[in-house]
Design a protein that fits this description.
Layout (H helix, E strand, L loop, with lengths): L5 H5 L7 E12 L3 E5 L7 E4 L7 H4 L7 E10 L7 E12 L15 H5 L9 H23 L3 E2 L5 E2 L11 E2 L26 E3 L4 H11 L1 E9 L12 E10 L3 H22 L1 H15 L12 H10 L3 E4 H9 L2 H4 L16 H12 L3 E7 L15 E9 L3 E8 L4 H10 L8 H8 L5 E7 H9 L20
Parallel strand pairs: 3-5, 6-10, 12-13
Antiparallel strand pairs: 1-2, 1-4, 2-3, 4-5, 7-9, 8-9, 10-11, 11-16, 13-14, 14-15, 15-16
The structure holds 4-amino-1,4-dioxobutan-2-aminium adenosine-5'-monophosphate and magnesium ion.
């Protein structure tokens, strides 16, 4: 007999069939009603046992969390809340879960408590819903690029270059930390390390993606990236997944168009395919926010918010315009920003980004043409000589969700920049080759996948939208 999923059974019209199902007990009421879940859906199937016909010792093991094999007949449900249920004829306990020890009991657990039990938290409705949405978003991303003529490119995880030039890298080495080989002047001699040079975990696959775009036209990477930045916030992870498309012959406008269309498309796909889970997450959020003052509650329920993003244009604003708005806004004048905006050229902090998105424009915003000084070396210099063709997409409740740019394709301008920033040109020899041989206008961006999942699920902390979060002082599991 084929093992049916609970999702299939719940929508089955084929009553009175004999079926077998396996799953985990959510609850067992009145020694009669087992709510069984197998992860295929948020919902449980009700399994009805006539306890008179079952061994009491077996039924004693039917506790929350236990794994069961159930055989029975699918019948129309007598009770409310479900259309079908299983009249159980045979029940086998595959694996017990001692109620004295099993931490995921049917009651409300705090997200903090569940974070410490990341291996078991996926057994709650909240985390199962989040992770199904996460999986659907990942699929939607691949689907979008495939339908739009992109090739999926696998960037290396271990690399010798610092793509962002921010120096926030995890070193990869096999040298003996207690007795590393030294050079004549006493520095660690990386020539003797595994790769014969200093290597690290990648912070971004962009530079390698550029090489591929300059041959395949349109490519994207979707993989883990690593940043050793010591920011213990609800928006930062040390290991996160990034989606990075890179396109030959795209200027910044085409790049922004693509980014906007891409985000709308994957959210729309998720609205269609995760309705049940999104409804659950929407109610979870409404419930959580009940105890908060009105001002701290979300402006829209989750699904309405997602539809709003799909249906409305993102507002495009230059950095220079944004600075004017910020300089003259109330919180700045009243000195309510932790970092007051005084002059053109300062980097925007998340408090500024959130003011623009949540208070001023009330919609997703694309900021573009940033000062060259606050952006990475590879961005294309504008005619004004002081701004670069960069763009960041800012989302309500999230802040920056995308960072991208048109790349500097002119060899001489790029070399000048590299010199200015004191980067070793030799390290970037292959990257410069791309400008020597068949150089062309090209652009791309990086989307922080967990920030997208945060937005789509309405969760408040990035640690709750990745299975096993890695953050400063934490790499359990
Ligand atoms: O803005 P970032 O640093 O851009 C790049 O890495 C470019 N090389 C991308 C490109 O053009 N191909 O990072 C891109 C996005 C950010 O907008 C943010 O959403 C996410 O990655 N991100 C993080 N997400 C979680 N934890 C962190 N520590 C993150 N750092 C960046
Ligand atoms: Mg950025």
């Amino acid at each position: 007999m084929r093992l049916a999923t609970i999702k299939e059974l719940l929508s089955s019209k084929n009553l009175l069939q004999e079926i077998t199902v396996k799953g985990w007990v959510r609850t067992f009421r009145s020694n009669r009603f087992i709510a069984l879940n197998d992860g295929s859906t948020l919902n449980t199937i009700q399994c009805v046992v006539d306890f008179e016909n079952f061994d009491e010792d077996v039924l004693k093991k039917v506790n929350t969390g236990a794994a069961l094999k159930i055989t029975g007949t699918l019948v129309e449900s007598q009770g409310r809340g479900q259309s079908v249920e299983i009249q159980v004829t045979a029940l086998e306990v595959l694996g017990v879960a001692d109620p004295e020890e099993y931490p995921i009991q049917p009651k409300k657990h705090s997200l903090e408590f569940l974070r410490e039990k990341a291996h078991l938290r996926i057994r709650t409705n909240t985390f199962a819903a989040i992770m199904r949405v996460r999986s659907t978003l990942a699929f939607a991303i691949h689907n979008y690029f495939r339908e739009n003529g992109f090739n999926y490119f696998h960037a290396p995880i271990i690399t010798g270059s610092d793509a962002e030039g921010a120096g926030e890298m995890f070193r990869v080495t096999t040298l003996d930390e207690k007795k590393p080989p030294l050079t004549e002047d006493g520095a660690v001699n990386y020539k003797e390390d595994f790769f014969g040079k200093e290597t690290n975990l990648t912070v971004s696959g962009q530079l390698e993606a550029e090489a591929y775009a300059m041959a395949l036209g349109k490519v994207y990477t979707f993989g883990p990236t690593f940043r050793a930045e010591n920011s213990n916030t609800s928006r930062h992870l040390a290991e996160f997944w990034m989606v990075e498309p890179e396109m030959a012959f795209f200027d910044l406008d085409a790049n922004m168009d693509l980014a906007e269309d891409f985000i709308k498309n994957v959210i729309s796909y998720t609205l269609t395919h995760c309705q049940e889970d999104l409804e659950f997450l929407e109610n979870r959020l409404l419930d959580e926010e009940k105890s908060k003052p009105q001002a701290q509650r979300s402006a829209m329920p989750l699904i309405e918010k997602l539809k709003f993003v799909v249906d409305n244009n993102f507002k495009r604003v230059s950095y220079t315009e944004a600075i004017e708005i910020l300089k003259n806004c109330k919180p700045n004048k009243k000195k309510q920003f932790q970092y007051p905006i005084e002059e053109w050229g300062t980097d925007l902090q998340s408090e500024h980004e959130r003011y623009l998105v949540e208070k001023h424009f009330n919609c997703p915003v694309i900021l573009f043409d940033y000062p060259a000084k606050i952006k990475a070396f590879y961005m294309r210099l504008n005619e004004d000589g002081k701004t670069v063709r960069a763009m960041d997409i800012l989302f309500p409740g999230i802040g920056e969700i995308v960072g991208g740019s048109q790349r500097e394709e002119r060899l001489d301008v790029l070399k000048e920049k590299i010199k200015e920033l004191d980067i070793d040109e030799k390290e970037l020899w292959w990257y410069l080759d791309l400008r020597k041989f068949g150089t062309a206008e090209h652009s791309g961006f990086g989307l922080g996948f967990e920030r997208l999942v945060l937005f789509a699920t309405g969760m408040g902390n990035i640690r709750d939208v990745i299975p096993f979060p890695r953050t400063p002082q934490n790499a359990e599991f």
